Amino acid sequence: MKLRCWLSLGMMSLLATGGACAQGNLQAGAMSMAFAADGTLPAMQLHGDDLPLRGPGGFDGVVYVGSEQPIEPELLYRNAFGADDLPWQPAAYAKHDEGIGAERLEEDGRPFVRVGGAERFGHGLEMAAPLRVAPGSNCIIRWRGRVPDSASSYIVYLRIFDVNGEDITKKVPAARGWTYSPFSFTHYKNLIVPDGIGDWRELSYTYQMPAGAHALSVAICLWRGAHADVGEFSIAQSGRVATVPLRFDQRQCRQVAGAVQLDWFSSEHQVALQAQFTATADDSIRVQAELIDRATPPRPRAILLRYTLPVAFSDWTWHRDWRHDEVVAADTTYANISSMSGHSVSLYPFSALSNNGRGLAMGTDFTDAVLECRRISSDGITTEWPVGMLPMDGRSASAQLSFLIFPFEGRWGFRSAARRYYAMFADAFQSRTTPEREGLWLWPVPPSQLPDRAEDFGLAFWEAPVTLAAKENEAQRARELGLYILPYTEAWGMRQNFPAASSPAELPPVPERLKQLEDWAADTETAATWFHAPRHIAARAALNSLPLTPEGEHPFAVDKYGTWSHWWRTNADPALPQPNRASICWDYELAPAMANADGVYLDSLTYGFAVDFFNVRPEHLAVYRGSLCFDALHARPGIDGMQHQLAFVRWLGSRLHAEGKILHGNLFGVSHRFHAPLVDVFGSEVGGFGSNRRMENIQSDEACGLKRFYAYRRPVCNLLQEGNFDKPVPALTQQEIAWYIDHQLFYGFYPGVCTIGGEEAPGYANWRRYFRGNSQCDRDRDLFKEAVPLIRRLNRAGWQPETGMRSDNPVLLIERFGELGVGGDANAGELLFTLRNPGTEPLRAAVWLEACAGVPALPPDTTPRLVSLRKGQDAVLVGGVTAGPGKVAVELAPLQTVVLKMLWP
């Protein structure tokens, strides 16, 4: 396991200070650290100032030693919905006008609650008050369930609370198999289907309470369909995974050339820790560590290893991301996380704090894709890793970790830390495309069916079905239009179709679905194909690639794209025995299209939808060469599904990049942290798919900031999807398309469009395609003709993390593209600003420039000269209005984006 934590504190200097008895010193510019004889940290300086410390810091950890299971689960809550039972309340986790769908009924003298109803998805029942549950315990959620038809199913929502009753659902990791929703702000599990229609069935699901969680609230609702019934709802506590502290009782520290080495050992657990702190040429401190199993014989290990930099951060500012800051208060912990295998994982590769323009950050190398989490408190920064170790061929196991600490300067918080981080990893952020060839993401219309004068729309990246990418006439037309040809693939699953099923409930039992795969693999005579390969080869590849969960199951999902399908989750690691999912993907899907291709489009680079599983299959663990983690529910070493996906993307990227080809990824959330070093074109499918439309602001600013950070100056192209699986919806208006384009323009994103509604029949296959002929897109041609060249101009100038412009109105959003040379030489670059009013009311503000890298200081008492680059928007610069010395007044209409150019005075 390779985790690299870099301590890059401006220019760091590790010196003994304050009379500490130092065993080792490191010096790297503006920061100093002194190591005591036991390897702890007695003193530290930043920019010549002593940093107050809260304790010795250093490494510690927790060893997970297995489950404590009581003989019988302890019943904590039961509600049969009788008159004297516990109180409950109707709940709605989706917005509808028809009211809340939950009513108490009786049948044969037994009460129950009917949840949901027509157009009331996400409605149901909820506990009237949170239930106290011990942290770490396994909660078994049970109810009697019944659905009236094959289209109806359940969703369960959970909210989590701390010891003081505060809702911390967003701050703690979702248990394995559950997913966090940024829309309902819950941990949820959906598409729950009983194994019979019209009959009562027992339904049961386990949720492991995360650390720091002391209570939960459960809601059972309708996911889709007519309605669903809930009876005899209960929650039981079945035990937890036991843990013990990992204490290193034997500690040595010694100075070597340019580094300090630690040698620690735990006599109790027979685990050694070796770590080296090195001052590097880029003024950071790199820490490389190794955990080694010294037991005889070696045994499986599940260890949560921590390192704490014990700086007293009271009254410092923690920078959550590029637009959200919090002052560090006592008794509060801060983190920006997602969850994987029940563990917290930081969304960004570093955490940054600052005080009066001087900052300190801790994180990992940009190219180190690891399960690692950082938390900040007034007692310091702690970074931790879930480490799994397994003996291989009877030999002792080890795990390699690395991290970094670095300083930064600047009064732009997270943005200043990002500028420093980009400089340290400049090679990893290099672009393989140029703005002249960049533009919109095109799917699924082939080039031969595009509208007249298709070049008006700025199309650039064609997500091509492999069969069409191989056709020379389509390739020729794509070349004429200057499109990148990017054949589609999605190697994280294999859909097994069941055309006769009209709902998930009508699929055969899971063992029969698996038996069908085995029969296909044995049938070498048939001429049938599956995933473009002979069916028996594809079926054998599926069987070889099926992960195995700690519960002894092969993970899967059920979905419908034309027909209901069982979607096997697959391990796409190319190192598996062949045939495997990776080998048939290349041999039968991608290779035939490579002669015409400029790269590959990778779909579903997302955690919850594609790779949310934990794999303990021995054959898969034997060939895996990355870092192991462990399953928080069972404390078993293994591999998270994201790590398998990364192995495939890394393998494919190395093949393509060696040939000058590119990778285009459909990326969401935490998957950016793993795939961003490999992907060349970023983007996501966006939109409400016909429900809960929010065209005014198609994505949250937080989600756009995450994508902009990881892409840096590489292109971001999103793809709008508006349509409905269940019934047709009206097409978007021209005003709604204009809102979408304006939103994307602000961030320098290319506004791709697939569908805008207006379909005549339900089902994805019947959705109208925006760029097929002139049916819908011609109305909006002029919007794209103006916006796309301007977006290219922004990307040519280059996005800059520090904006260089301030405002007196916090609602106004500002980004910068480009920079000016020393002295403001107008020929040394172009300085552009995008301003956006995300609200529904007119906005007025004063803006002014503040010098930073690429924005030279203006002469005293000089007002910035700004001009608008968008047609008809000169009025945003309010002439004749005094905003103050050096300030410019601006006025933006609701949802308006403007682009301003700075002219040097």
TrEMBL record:
This protein's name: Uncharacterized protein
Signal peptide per UniProt: 1-22
Domain of life assignment: Bacteria
Keywords tagged on the record: Signal
PROSITE patterns, per database record: PROKAR_LIPOPROTEIN
